[in-house]
Design a protein that fits this description.
The complex is a heterotrimer of chains A (166), B (365) and C (62). Helices cover 94% and strands 0% of the residues of chain A. Chain A has helices at 2-7, 10-145, 149-162. Classes of the chains: A mainly alpha (166), B mainly alpha (365), C mainly alpha (62). Chain C: InterPro entries: ATP_synth_csu_bac/chlpt, ATP_synth_F0_csu, ATP_synth_F0_csu_DDCD_BS, ATP_synth_F0_csu_sf, ATPase_proteolipid_c-like_dom, F/V-ATP_Csub_sf.
Chain lengths: 166, 365, 62
């Protein structure tokens, strides 16, 4: 301790204090302040860039999910449209079929009606012709048979017996 | 080409380290008492080491023991003795003659300036301490030169780093080495100990002190023979700076914890008060003693190992003793490089720890 | 003479203390290698405090 106190130089202490004080002030002004400020700026810049990248990534994710959603919607829409179209087609076919059926039925019915009426007309004509024929025949027979009166009568009677009118 | 340059650089560093030992060894021949009688006894080596550990008024690189001539340059001496007395230290002739300035006579005795009569008589007391009057010595001594050198070096290096940021966010060249150190002090020393909000105010002091001590510690390992941080006046000054900064930044809680410790019974508070007050003083005291003792011890060990070269010459011959001394000195020098950083780190670390204690917010009671 | 005995005692005490600090720090690092940095810093600080104490005693006793 004695030795130390003896070695202690007040002058050196004083010089050191002044030098250190000046050095601290100078270094603060010319070195530490700009250095620390730049470091902080840089770190903040890096942090900002990282944040921005994170943000962009998130946005990207959002965009991607949006896309996915839109795509899904589009797919669903397409499916719906396809389904609708198919249904429409089916409906149309069914409609057409039933229309055709109805038309066909109608035509058949008409044909049948026509056939029936033709048949009636034909039968009526046949009846008329038969009646005419029978009148003609009867005339001929009557002419022949009129010569022979007995025979005439007999013939008329047998003929009439034969012909049955329906 | 680049590889060649790099290996050249390494070679230069190694060479510098080697010449460090060699120059120190050759300056082991220095002596300032009599001519033609090189240092070769234990006592003389001890005295030489003691001389080295002290501050010096001139810058001696080498002394030729045969002729007694010193190779170096004198430094200005500035004394306050009822007025400023300034002259070059060459007037002392390394303590061999009396220097006269303004009608007073001064003599250099064991590295200190004493006021004497014209004949230069120094009277000693029982403890071999001179009883002569000591003028206040504001000389530009070797330590002051070292400090100025460190200061200028720091200003040049770090203002270059600061200017580098104007050109771009990433520094180039040597500044790239300095930047991580600044970040290291900020992130590993200041921020964890002082706190994220308050550390900014103290960065100027902490950074300056860290690099100042580190550069001076390393300067002490060069063959120039500086011993700045191993000088008690320097470490006292550094520790006093910390002391005042801690006391002036102490908040209400800090003082309350010293004078009226909360959360303990009253008798305990009274007992704790003087202990805490003592603690205020022992903290900077341990700071200054640690730095002083570590660096002094380092220099002492290195120089003693160099001294082995002379002492072992009789047993191992000149080559053997030089080899032993060289290997041991190299080994210790490498450890001292680590210590140089460690002591700067610890001084800054503990300073910021003390500052952190003073500014801490206690919200738990 | 007494000074030297005192210095020896201080060195013994300091050595034991430093050994304890270093050993426990090593154990801690071995147990939790990821906390090595923090343990090292704490170890250096406590070592420095102890060193300051020992040096203080040595110099006061000198």
């Amino acid at each position: 301790m004695d030795q130390l106190l003896n070695d202690f130089s007040p002058g050196l202490f004083f010089m050191q204090a002044i030098i250190l004080l000046i050095l601290i002030l100078l270094m603060r002004k010319f070195a530490w302040k700009p250095i620390l400020n730049s470091l902080q700026d840089r770190e903040e810049g890096i942090q900002g860039a990282l944040d921005a990248a994170e943000e962009a990534k998130k946005e990207m994710q959002n965009l991607k999910s949006d896309n996915e959603r839109i795509l899904n919607e589009a797919r669903a829409e397409r499916d719906g449209m396809l389904k609708e179209a198919r249904q429409l087609k089916d409906n149309m076919i069914a409609d057409a079929k039933s229309e055709a059926q109805a038309e066909a039925d109608k035509i058949v019915a008409q044909a049948q009606a026509t056939i029936a009426s033709e048949k009636k007309a034909a039968i009526a004509e046949l009846k008329n012709q038969v009646a005419g024929l029978s009148v003609e025949i009867a005339e001929k027979v009557v002419r022949n048979e009129l010569a022979n009166k007995d025979k005439q009568l007999e013939l008329v009677e047998s003929m009439l017996g034969e012909v049955t009118l329906n | 080409m680049k590889v060649f340059q790099r290996s050249l650089k390494y070679a230069t560093i190694v060479l510098l380290m080697l010449t460090g030992s060699v120059v120190c060894a050759s300056s082991g021949d220095e002596q300032h008492k009599s001519v033609g009688n090189p240092i070769d006894t234990k006592e003389e080596i001890n005295a030489y080491i003691k001389h080295h550990l002290q501050d010096s008024h001139d810058f001696t690189f080498y002394t030729n023991g045969e002729t007694g001539t010193h190779y170096g340059f004198p430094l200005p001496v500035i004394l306050w003795d009822g007025g400023i007395k300034a002259f070059m230290s060459s007037k002392f002739h390394h303590g061999e003659t009396v220097a006269e300035s303004g009608g007073s006579y001064y003599k250099l005795y064991h590295g200190k300036v004493y006021k004497t009569d014209a004949a230069g008589t120094i009277t000693l007391d029982d403890h071999h301490h001179p009883t002569n009057e000591k003028p206040l010595d504001f000389s530009i001594t070797k330590s002051v030169v070292g400090m100025l050198f460190a200061g200028v070096l720091m200003l040049l290096l770090f203002s270059a780093l600061a200017r580098g940021y104007k050109k771009g966010p990433i520094p180039s060249g040597f500044a790239r080495v300095l930047e991580p150190l600044v970040i290291y002090v900020r992130d590993e020393i200041a921020k964890p100990n002082i706190g994220e909000q308050k550390y900014r105010k103290y960065m100027g002091f902490l950074l300056t002190v860290f690099f100042f001590i580190w550069i001076l510690n390393l300067l002490g390992l060069t063959p120039l023979g500086f011993n700045v941080t191993g000088n008690i006046a320097v470490t006292v000054c550094l520790a006093l700076f910390t002391f005042f900064i801690v006391q002036f930044s102490g908040n209400k809680d800090y003082w309350k914890h010293i004078f009226w410790m909360p959360g303990v019974p009253i008798p305990m508070k009274i007992i704790l008060m003087p202990i805490e007050v003592l603690g205020i003083l022992t903290k900077p005291f341990s700071l200054l003693i640690r730095l002083f003792a570590n660096i002094t011890a380092g220099h002492f060990v290195v120089m003693s190992l160099i001294g082995l070269m002379i002492l072992l010459k009789a047993q191992f011959g000149p080559v053997g003793s030089t080899g032993i001394s060289l290997i041991l000195t190299l080994f210790i020098s490498v450890i001292e490089i680590l210590v140089a950083f460690l002591q700067a780190f610890i001084f800054t670390m503990l300073s910021s720890l003390f500052i952190g204690m003073a500014v801490a917010e206690h919200d738990h009671h | 003479m007494y000074n030297l005995i005192g210095a020896g005692l201080i060195v013994i005490g300091g050595g034991i203390g430093l050994g304890q600090i270093g050993g426990k720090a090593m154990e801690g690092i071995a147990r939790q290698p990821e906390a090595a940095g923090k343990i090292q810093t704490a170890m250096i600080i406590i070592g420095a405090l102890l060193e300051g104490l020992a040096f203080g005693a040595l110099i006061l006793g000198k």
